[in-house]
Amino acid sequence: MVDAVVSYVVHKLGDYIIQEAVFLRDVRDEVQLLKNELEWMQCFIKDAEEKQVEDAMIRKWVSDIRDIAYDTEDVLDNFMLKIDHGKTPSRDRPALFALIRKYSCLFDIGKMKDLYGIGKEIESVQKRIIDLSRKRELYRLEDIGNRREGKSNNLERLIDLRRATSFVVDENIVGFEDDAKMLLGKLLEGEPRRFVVSIFGMGGLGKTTLAKKLYHNIDVLNKFNLRAWVYVSQDYQTQDLLRRIIKSFEIKINGVELEKMSEEDLERYLYKSLQGRSYLAVIDDVWQKEAWESLKRAFPDGNNGSRVIITTRIKEVAERSDERIHVHKLRFLRPDESWNLFCEKSFRKSNANEELEKLGREMVEKCGGLPLAIIVLGGLLSTKKPQEWRSVRDHIWQHLRNDSIHIPSLLTLSFNDLPYQLKLCFLYLGVFPEDFEFFIEKAIRLLVAEGFIREDDDRVMEEVAKNNLDELINRSLIQIENICRGRVETCRIHDLLRDLAIQKAKELNFFHIYDGIHHPTCSPTPTSSARRLVFYSETSSSFQHCNSLSRSLLLYDRDQDSFRQTSTAIFTRLRLLRVLHVENYGGYINCHRLPKEIGQLVHLKYLTVRISFIRNLPPSIVNLRKLQTLDLYSRRWLLKLPIGIGKLQELRHLIGTFEGPLPIDNLTNLQTLKFVSYESWSKVHPDKLVNLRELHINHFHTQEQEQEPFIFDSIAKLKNIRILSVELSGVHSFSSLQPLSHCPRLQDLTLGGKIEELPADMHTMLPNLECLSLSNSNLQDDPMPKLEKLPNLVSLELRFHSYHGKKMICREKGFSQLESLEILDLYEWEEWQVEKGAMPMLKNLEINPKNSELRIPERLISIPAPTRRYSTARTRF
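Now predict its structure.
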């Protein structure tokens, strides 16, 4: 874990050397040397962390490295804070060349070092690194770990336990009946070629349990001549796996010494032994797709109906294991299944009284349908007296961790397998409240602002962050909650994994949580160097007593008095803040203005304040030159931007309900702009908005105003636009859609307003369009013949008077990629013809035609409606 922190600081030092070269010019060599020293220390960290569990001396050494990394960051951040304070004496900053000239005249390098002390501070940090290196050699820390290699640790014991119980059958498996029945059919079906069944899902979900149920099924026993089970794990050796598979198959070994055979000989021996026979092999707990690749040459692909079952936590491993494969994502238990499993483990044959049942159901709900957690909880409570149940309920995760080696070890396996960039991303998701459904886009903006994301040659940081979150989804570390318009919109982290993130973060001083119940507040004399502070509930805590070195402050559930009392303290005390997130997810904070002191947070990159009644921003907001995200969204009030907002050259995401002038012409890094009126947008010169990817426009007219059509000419200048939403009011209309042909990257289009006619060449105009939503379009001609040709359309919504005709026809081979279709509130629609072969990929269908006589084609009746909590793209922020 410390390797992730050190890597993060090393990258930040590199950024400082490049971006702040003017002010670091005479200590640049010292900073570069410090960066090199930390990079050198990284060579030893990973190995040390693997050995620190059982050695206090190594734990102390690793902890000291963490502190040095943090202190290095503090030295540079404080230095730049003083520099920035010196160069901003008034509201208007001088130009950069004037600053350089000013400092060149006033200070020589010696005085600069004396004034800010950076030279001595860097020297002090370097001495600490040298001292750590000396201690590593003096106490021979590497040898300590090596001498203890023979000592079994928790992870090794867990692996041995899993291997030993692979063949143990649980007669009372709850919740896998439907899964087992379906997968059993795949194993027994008549396909003669070798076939792979992949089962994937979160650790503790029951993949191995389900595989065991299949492995020991009587029909499986009768079908397959040979069966084998091998547990793989993260650190596998192909030769060892082959030897264990041969032994598990119980293949007769006539004078052959397996231990002396090479990998190639083992492959050949296994292949020859299986040839012409029907076999079933279970490859359990696979972490890399290369594992099966390295084995499958030894498994004959004949016509004997042989099968392989692979269990894994990683989606990519499951999907890419073989050419002929069935992938099964294992679900979480339903509430009734969870309760039945819990009762079986906790009450045995006795009955629960009303109070115990209430407490039990509360705890089972906390387990979130994870079988392992429910089983451990039930076993724990079966040994507890009734009066002890409440204590377990109040500290459920602590009790489960202490009672079972399985839970912490199984989940830690997933964490340890992550590269350092993903470790930071996963840990950071622990800042979201328990059971919180977070928006992917919000998480992306936070991760970028925190500095965890590195921009590469081909992708912007937001795309890299999205890929990181997708990887966490694929590794079953976060769960998809809602998919909107073909894209993942919201996710959730299981409480057990969130608890793991909190525990790891505590060890790193990565963040500190106060929820008023389970976690202590900041002390008047803080000793913690936690970089991030998270408050979930109202407190009387005074922020001036919190650690002034904190980089992030996330406040949830603020009321108006709390925010007013603490805001000035935040802005004057926590001067190194990069992230400030204030949100009341139960409502809105009644606050009329942001304090002018906010302009002192010159390091701030992310500012979200979801409060109502703010109409204006203080002029000091333009001091936040590093700001990337400014989110002041409110459904209740329109917000005016200050004239100087164009000075925020780093701004990437501007979110609110804005009125009046939009002085954003020079914001060349702007990627997101929502929500603005058409009147305001029409006065913007978009030529310089070369990076704008998402734009939401609302058009509000009074009846007295002239009703002019919306013209897309300005949109046509946005060459990088991906998501466009234009919502007109009343009967207002769009002009020709033809200018959109100049937006080749457009993927998501929402149009609310009258359209005279869809272009006949829409499929060539918008070849990359994936999501389309039309409402109030008043189309007279059937839109399907034109829309079905869109080659990449995944999601289509026709809403609220989008079509006034009576008949729609979807032709053969039309909508070849469409997965989600919603047709709502079409009053005149009477007939729908869907030819065979149309919409072959359709997974979700929702129809509300306002005509009870409309007949839905029979083959589409069983397709489910999309499961969602948010119905339109307008909620995606």
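The chain is about 35% helix and 15% strand.
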